[in-house]
Amino acid sequence: MAEGTFLHADLDSFYASVAQRDDPSLRGRPVVVGGGIVLAASYEAKACGVRTAMSGRIARRLCPDLVEVPATFTAYVEASRAVFEVFRDITPVVEGISIDEAFLDVGGLARLSGAPSRIGAELRRRVKAEVGLPISVGIASSKFLAKVASAASKPDGLLSVPVGGELDFLHPLPIEALWGVGKVTSVRLHDRGIATVGALARLSPETLTSIVGPASGRHLHALSHGLDPRRVETGRRRRSIGAQRAIGRGRHTGEELDATLVSLVDRVTRRMRSGERIGRTFVLRLRFDDMTRVTRSRTVRRATAGTDAWLVAGRALLDEAMPLIVDRGVTLIGISITGLDEAEDEQLELPFDTDAPTRLDGALDAVRDKFGSTAVTRAVLLGRSEGFSAPQLDSH
Fold first, then answer.
1. Ranges in the chain, pLDDT < 70
2. Which residues are catalytic?
3. Which of 59, 68, 99, 377 is 20 to 30 A distant from 47 in Cα terms?
4. What class has domain 171-224?
């Protein structure tokens, strides 16, 4: 049967796989990245019931042999770059959607490289040989189905959904396989006896809309029939850059929270400058002891990539949220800078002598690029572990 030309490539347990790659003694053992909160888990740990965002205490209870390793952000970025080099060497039509996954369109490569399944197999072989990481690949006639297929092929597999067999593959799957079916929607559908994609597809659009609302109803009805007209978009730059850090349970002083914020802002703004981007809005995300979350944002008058400007915005938001933090306890701090634009589009204000902080940021970036990220650090971070800032790359 004919094959689709959309590939979804997704690295398996990315952070944990990098740890196992770099330390052979960890291979085959249950590994988690992070301490107080599980940031990533190897498949050996997942087999014991360990899951991302689970507390370390619960993870250790489920898996007494668990090995906890610290996160190494630079290793993840380097591995991601190497993997994407393989992607782009295979086809120029690549759409990255996160640090560890991408869509590829191989529709024009039949004569040069063979069938999509052959290309997918070669992609997996090269990522394993050149980067040392396992990767799963789904192949289908649409982006949505390719992503579902890659998830079904995990770990370290390849699955091609034949053209004409899309609904035979999709309809037996649980409704949670559809984009847009979260906890609330899942409960609503299960309460009405709708457990599979096929059962959902048999509903009329009007009935589905009455259950989940107009927008979700139209969206889920289309996906349940395998309809997804989106193409792989290349050259699209991300619209936000973010990072987060789990800080564990317990009371944290204002100085500790500020140091975490400084570390995150330093890292995010450095990445902005390296990509020649400027942003307009600062978003602060907090997770509390009871696993609830809040989000606060502030838009600055002039788009910038300057560290000091974003520190002012971030500290103001953190100060506003302190009553909640004191009352409920905070276990994770995340930030993102949105509304990104090209640095060359920056609108300067009179007088034009206000770029000294930007020049200083650039000089510090150059020192860190040459001598390492710890060559120059802020006094507030001395003696503190900067921990892990998980990259959040949002293209939407």
1. 35, 235-238, 344-396
2. 101
3. 99
4. mainly alpha
